[in-house]
């Protein structure tokens, strides 16, 4: 059916209100079921044996003793997950990451797994597995890995994206480049040039719920998988392909998800659990420990970035250039490419060039983390932008406003922008009371901008109208932060009924068509589009049924505020038929009433934010305190404003942790030294102030309600905003994230000439 | 290994179970008694997702052995509401949207209940330090603090 996704500028009744979420009571009473809260009869406990080496050849694995231990029902190695990827390199990498085939590529890489009657037996069994390793030299630092003398992680990798195919393999899998104009010429016109190098350390999404699943493979080849995931349809596809199953034979149910932030977009344990269940002939529950989550799920990239920006005395940027190196773990990725695309996306530039290098290191395979790759690029760019404003003698907000991208600007990564929010967020920040709040001694204020593309993608929604007129909405995008509430609001809005009469659920993979995962801030954007489309399809049927009940032409029936209304004088005495009345009669007018929608949600509007923060630095210890924090971001249209605020606050808090504290620390032996929440310290309640938010609504022209994604942009500016604040407070430019007390103290002492 | 027989009180009910000597109270609650409201986020007492109240004391149940519950009183999230009437903290968490994914929520509610029992009129700072043993990765804590402040006001008036 034809669906017109264009923004219509309608007045809203439900959208924009703040009702309580449909899954709320279960979550405050402990009833909600997350990954590890599900059990099956006869279920076994799965455990994974992991490499203690950063890089090692696996000569032999002897599982015979483990197999003989009473209570052990299955032991598997890579041999039990044969390569069925048929030349698909990306799938092969996923397979190899799930279970090392010939080499362990990082500390924590899975090498074998067991299923046993209880956890203690499973742990004992792991100790009985003998792995004969040949330890190889390793490299964990992104810059060292690019060095010609660095240990090679995969000798079949030859850098892609170079003009000539290199003759030697390297740890750089790909070079990518974006931009336009002539930066050399642009720098020639600059009165001031800032050139700096920056580093950021690897961080983890830090979701509180470890990965967990229950897999049950039957002897007839069908299987069920219960799992915490951001994308159960994608998990189904990947698991089915790796295990040689038809996708339709594997039903995947997404549990409530205890945080993902990009980290639950990849399979790790699930194919292993399925393989164990297949071998044991019983259901297997596999739950990662926190140590395993840190060592063996997917953190973000560590980076090394060089920036050069030039501007005229009047504050116009004449050229901007960035070289970005992003670690990918031991498998190819496109993380630097995304960083190179986002780096200068906030600005209107005649001459811009960004080059990204994807770098292999002996660390876990990089996964998405909320606006993946953008925060590090923004940290480097926005730090240099601040420094340049200072050199010119301009206010940093004014300098950014002068150079901000606008509607019609050709972005640094190619496309021409439609209506966008960078200018308005900057203007809002400029006039925000935060900017006038007094600063005390050793306190500094910083601000920065951020950009994220936002995704759309394949989406499918079913909207079923019950005989009593209540509505069941089945969506395929996992609810990571309240989207069932937002989507219920959208269905209520479109149908013209009360929010309370809509109940949204996340359907399993056998009950709904394929959906891309909840990533790229696409959940509410794309599923609301599909919900609107499904509701409009249902309304068409409701009108037909009303026409039938009245025995008039369907073209004479319109849908208004939850009712069918016969239009025209000739129908003046017909009154109205409510959705409830039409539904009650449906058994006699043609059966159940439903609306379905299958679409590719195109036109996700890009998103911009500006953050302001005040930081106090103790010059004696280098410790920091966040005094004030303000987020200004464009939401397009805030469907449920409280949850939009929550996304802004949550992203800011994660950015604060990244900026000030969090990092993966590897020892010389290539092993992770802080795989726990004690030593990998995420912000706690007493570390943070209230986080003020301001929602701007610049409608996305490609969505009926103007919605843009809101989930990710909020993590893009904090690294830079905090670095600018710390630099202003400490009087020295900070170039290495996280700005932990020792790094700040060292910078202060170096500045003092100490 | 021989099991240990334990008699205890959970959410006001007498409960008896057998557990292994090395089994945590969290594992007993979740795996033996089906009380999965307490979550394991770390297993090392760092995240607070498994918070329970043991004889009026807030503890991480991952750091308590199942055998240690003998003769004591255990309060979990499952006992917080009275029938179908939510505790004011539960109600305020909903109203303020103090949860996104909700995995940390049972632990926060238990910790906040313990905090308000000991300090019915906490300042913002006292709330922040009182809840510093519980990790939330979604909310930035802003709405959690506001929900606790609001619940404290309601409970004082009750």
TrEMBL record, chain A:
Stored SMART domains: Ald_Xan_dh_C
Domain spans labelled Aldehyde oxidase/xanthine dehydrogenase a/b hammerhead: 29-137
Classification via InterPro entries: Ald_Oxase/Xan_DH_a/b, Ald_Oxase/Xan_DH_a/b_sf, Ald_Oxase/xanthine_DH-like, AldOxase/xan_DH_MoCoBD1, AldOxase/xan_DH_MoCoBD2, AldOxase/xan_DH_Mopterin-bd_sf
Protein name, entry field: Xanthine dehydrogenase, molybdenum binding subunit apoprotein
Organism: Mesorhizobium qingshengii
One MF term in the entry's GO annotations: oxidoreductase activity
Record's keyword terms, sorted: Molybdenum, Oxidoreductase
A Pfam family matched in the record: MoCoBD_2
Region (Disordered): 1-24
UniProtKB/TrEMBL annotation, chain B:
Coiled-coil boundaries: none
Keywords on record: 2Fe-2S, Iron, Iron-sulfur, Metal-binding, Oxidoreductase
Annotated PANTHER family: OXIDOREDUCTASE WITH IRON-SULFUR SUBUNIT
SUPFAM superfamilies attached to this UniProt entry: 2Fe-2S ferredoxin-like, CO dehydrogenase ISP C-domain like
PROSITE patterns attached to this UniProt entry: 2FE2S_FER_1, 2FE2S_FER_2
InterPro entries with a match to the protein in the record: 2Fe-2S-bd, 2Fe-2S-bd_dom_sf, 2Fe-2S_ferredoxin-like_sf, 2Fe-2S_ferredoxin-type, 2Fe2S_fd_BS, Beta-grasp_dom_sf, Diverse_Oxidoreductases
Pfam families linked to this entry: Fer2, Fer2_2
Keyword Plastid: no
Domain 2Fe-2S ferredoxin-type span(s) in chain numbering: 4-80
Source taxonomy: Bacteria, Pseudomonadati, Pseudomonadota, Alphaproteobacteria, Hyphomicrobiales
MF (Gene Ontology): 2 iron, 2 sulfur cluster binding; metal ion binding; oxidoreductase activity
Entry protein name: Carbon-monoxide dehydrogenase small subunit
């Amino acid at each position: 059916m034809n669906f017109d996704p264009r923004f219509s500028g309608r007045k809203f009744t439900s959208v924009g209100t703040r009702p309580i979420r449909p899954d709320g009571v279960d979550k405050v009473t402990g009833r909600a079921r997350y990954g590890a809260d599900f059990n099956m009869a006869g279920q076994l406990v799965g455990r994974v044996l992991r490499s203690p080496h950063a890089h090692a050849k696996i000569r032999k694995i002897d599982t015979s003793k483990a197999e003989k231990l009473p209570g052990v029902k299955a032991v598997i190695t890579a041999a039990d997950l044969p390569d069925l990827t048929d030349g698909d390199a990306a799938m092969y990498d996923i397979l190899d990451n799930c279970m090392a085939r010939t080499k362990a590529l990082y500390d924590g890489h899975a090498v074998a797994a067991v299923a046993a009657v209880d956890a203690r037996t499973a742990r004992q069994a792991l100790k009985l597995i003998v792995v004969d390793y040949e330890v190889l030299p390793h490299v964990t630092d992104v810059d060292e890995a690019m060095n010609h003398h660095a240990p090679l992680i995969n000798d079949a990798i030859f850098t892609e994206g170079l003009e000539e195919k290199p003759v030697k393999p390297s740890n750089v899998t790909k070079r990518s480049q974006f931009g336009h104009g002539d930066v050399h010429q642009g720098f020639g016109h600059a009165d001031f040039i800032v050139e700096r190098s920056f580093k950021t350390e690897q961080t983890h999404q830090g979701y509180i719920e470890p990965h967990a699943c229950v897999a049950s493979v039957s002897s007839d080849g069908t299987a069920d998988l219960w799992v915490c995931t951001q994308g159960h349809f994608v998990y189904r596809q990947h698991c089915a392909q790796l295990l040689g199953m038809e996708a339709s034979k594997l039903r995947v149910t997404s549990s409530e998800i205890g945080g993902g932030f990009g980290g639950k977009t990849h399979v790790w344990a699930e194919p292993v659990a399925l393989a164990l269940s297949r071998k044991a002939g019983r259901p297997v529950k596999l739950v990662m420990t926190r140590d395993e989550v840190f060592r063996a799920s997917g953190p973000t990239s560590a980076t090394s970035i060089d920036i050069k920006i030039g501007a005229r005395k009047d504050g116009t940027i004449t050229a901007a250039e960035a070289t970005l190196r992003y670690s990918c773990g031991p498998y190819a990725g496109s993380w630097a490419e995304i960083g190179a695309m986002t780096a200068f996306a906030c600005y209107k530039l005649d001459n811009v060039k960004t080059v990204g290098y994807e770098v292999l290191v002996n660390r876990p395979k990089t996964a998405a983390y909320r606006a993946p790759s953008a925060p590090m690029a923004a940290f480097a760019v926005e730090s240099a932008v601040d420094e340049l404003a200072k050199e010119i003698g301009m206010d940093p907000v004014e300098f950014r406003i002068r150079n901000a991208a606008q509607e019609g600007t050709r972005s640094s990564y190619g496309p021409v922008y439609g209506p966008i929010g960078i200018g308005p967020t900057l203007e809002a920040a400029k006039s925000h009371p935060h900017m006038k709040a007094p600063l005390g001694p050793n306190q500094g204020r910083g601000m920065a901008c951020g950009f994220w593309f936002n995704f759309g993608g394949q989406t499918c929604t079913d909207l079923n109208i019950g005989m009593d007129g209540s509505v069941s909405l089945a969506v395929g995008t996992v609810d990571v932060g309240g989207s069932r509430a937002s989507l219920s609001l959208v269905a209520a809005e479109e149908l013209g009924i009360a929010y309370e009469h809509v109940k949204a659920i996340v359907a399993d993979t056998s009950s709904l068509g394929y959906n891309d995962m909840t990533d790229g801030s696409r959940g509410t954007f794309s599923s609301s589009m599909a919900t609107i489309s499904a509701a409009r399809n249902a309304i068409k049927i409701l009108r037909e049924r009303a026409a039938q009940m009245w025995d008039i032409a369907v073209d004479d029936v319109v849908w208004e505020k939850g009712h069918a209304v016969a239009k025209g004088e000739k129908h003046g005495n017909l009154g109205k038929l409510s959705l409830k009345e039409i539904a009650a009669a449906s058994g006699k007018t043609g059966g159940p009433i439903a609306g379905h929608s299958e679409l590719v949600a195109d036109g996700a509007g890009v998103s911009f934010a500006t953050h302001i923060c005040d930081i106090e630095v103790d010059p004696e210890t280098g410790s920091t305190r966040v005094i004030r924090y303000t987020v200004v971001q464009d939401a397009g249209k805030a469907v449920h404003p409280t949850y939009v605020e929550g996304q802004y606050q949550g992203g800011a808090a994660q950015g604060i942790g990244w900026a000030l504290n969090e990092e993966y620390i590897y020892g010389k032996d290539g092993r992770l030294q802080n795989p726990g929440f004690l030593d990998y310290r995420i912000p706690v309640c007493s570390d943070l102030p209230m986080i003020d938010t301001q929602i701007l609504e610049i409608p996305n022209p490609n969505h009926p309600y103007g919605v843009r994604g809101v989930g990710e942009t909020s993590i893009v500016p904090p690294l830079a905003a905090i670095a600018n604040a710390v630099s202003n407070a400490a009087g020295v430019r900070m170039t290495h994230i996280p700005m932990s007390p020792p790094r700040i103290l060292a910078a202060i002492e170096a500045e003092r000439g100490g | 290994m021989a099991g240990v027989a334990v008699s205890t009180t959970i959410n006001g009910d007498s409960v008896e179970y057998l557990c292994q000597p090395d089994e945590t109270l969290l594992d007993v609650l979740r795996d033996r008694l089906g009380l999965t409201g307490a979550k394991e986020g770390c297993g090392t007492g760092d995240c607070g997702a498994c918070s329970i109240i043991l004889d009026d004391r807030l503890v991480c149940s991952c750091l308590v052995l199942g055998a240690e519950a003998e003769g004591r009183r255990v309060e979990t999230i499952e006992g917080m509401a009275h029938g179908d009437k939510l505790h004011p903290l539960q109600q305020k968490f909903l109203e303020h949207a103090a949860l996104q994914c909700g995995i940390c929520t049972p632990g926060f509610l238990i910790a906040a209940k313990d905090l308000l029992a000991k300090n019915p009129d906490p300042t913002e700072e006292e709330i922040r330090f009182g809840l510093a043993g519980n990790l939330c990765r979604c909310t930035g804590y802003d709405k959690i603090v506001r929900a606790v402040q609001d619940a404290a006001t309601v409970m004082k008036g009750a």
